[in-house]
Amino acid sequence: MAYADLRAFLEGIGDDLIRVDAPLDPRFEVAALLAELQASGRAVLCENLKGRPGARIAGNLLASRRLAARALGTTEQGLVDTYMDRSARRLPPVAASEAPVHEVVHRQPADVGALLPLVTHYEKDAAPFLTCGVVLARDPATGQRGMGIHRMMYKGKNGDGRRFGIFLANPPLSAFLANAEASGRPLEVAVALGVDPAMLLAAVVKTGPQGPDKMEIAGGLRGAPVALVRALTVDLEVPARAEVVIEGHVLPGLREEEGPFGENTGSYFSNLSPVFEASAVTHRKDFIFPALVPWTADVDTLLSLAGGAELLGQLKGLLRGVVDLELTPGTCSFAAVIAVRDCPKTEVRRLIHLALGLDRRLKSVTVVDDDIDIRNPREVAWALATRCQPARDSVILGGLEGYVIDPSAAAGGGSKIGYDATRGPQPIFDKIAMPPAAVARARAVAATLTGANS
Length: 454
Ligand SMILES: Cc1cc2nc3c(=O)[nH]c(=O)nc-3n(C[C@H](O)[C@H](O)[C@H](O)COP(=O)(O)O)c2cc1C
Prior knowledge:
Strand content: 25-35%
Shape: globular
Number of strands: 23
CATH topology of the domain at 92-296: Pnp Oxidase, Chain A
Structural class: alpha+beta
Radius of gyration: 23 Å
CATH architecture of the domain at 92-296: Roll
Bound molecules: flavin mononucleotide
Largest sheet: 9 strands, antiparallel
Distance between the termini: 36 Å
CATH class of the domain at 92-296: Mainly Beta
């Protein structure tokens, strides 16, 4: 079932939404509470913001696979298959019959920060950042539509409340800006804030510079086309049921310090970045502002579907024996574990090269047999510790481009490593286990012991 918009999702998840009435400051306190409540795996709606009467912030929208499954209208077990199936469908957007996002219009706003409850996340962040705006643009060279999540730093603290630094490292938008700048023109941009989580997911699917229209992927993932309406001050279409849209331009040729910002790597990262200038803010009368705290399970969920599921599908298509893949949580998809079955050592080596080559972000891959639970760090560490001899079983690739937000690649140059932690044929690699009858008996006894399982 498709959720029409963010608020329909929040209403639809029932007990999976935590409502917070305590007064919270969008500067640090909202992000801190969202981080604190991550382990619950539930979404959060902060309904009482200090200094912002009536404003609300929703976060932790994808804090668990359960929420991601709900966003796609499936079960946790069916999540990856549903994602793969739907992301391959293309449903073109349609013209909206109504546009709640245009209920309130501010043209040429003097200070965007005065209109919206911008969130400041980590202690050393230079300013409030937009972290889950879906940035929409068209390629000035071809007219093709593109979108992605791109962090945006509010410059109001420096006296310019219409401007944001925008980090445009990835295609397609980085390529669109290069094309605009080649002819000395600004790049028209609209930032949709508060979209349903399936659309957020579509925004980060890897399509490359020439890839398909992610708005069509969003339709496929949602199971219903996205309804678009013309923006008011730029020649773009925007999701009519978004909570908020900021319209404007990325200014050609200008680069300014952006950051520090606590990134999805868990480290601070600064950059010389392009500058966006707002020409309008439009929103619903009672808008819900979205939050996404970097380096949390929300990011892991987005990356594990948009990156991990895609890579697993590609590898399965290239090699026999690939069973499952997990991007290691908290690593910004720099590390992965892959499970294989009946895969000869020579094929494991090929798999390592393929996986590291296909995903430019992936820096370390560990291949294990499918008797290892790849979502259990203890089991993965055990396989590495007992089934792998680094000098014999590792592959190191050097002379590569480092990924821009990886602090260890800051000095320039990148490298990658793969570990073959698969078992050989000998019984010395067998996992120790207790007799099944004894385990069954123990479970039955344990269930009768008050408090033993709590
Ligand atoms: C939570 C999150 C934040 C992101 N922030 C940025 C960003 O600030 N700048 C950027 O260029 N890409 C960012 N990305 C990546 C793009 O939104 C998008 O994933 C990318 O365009 C996908 O294509 P690629 O992986 O082939 O580059 C982010 C992705 C995620 C999941």
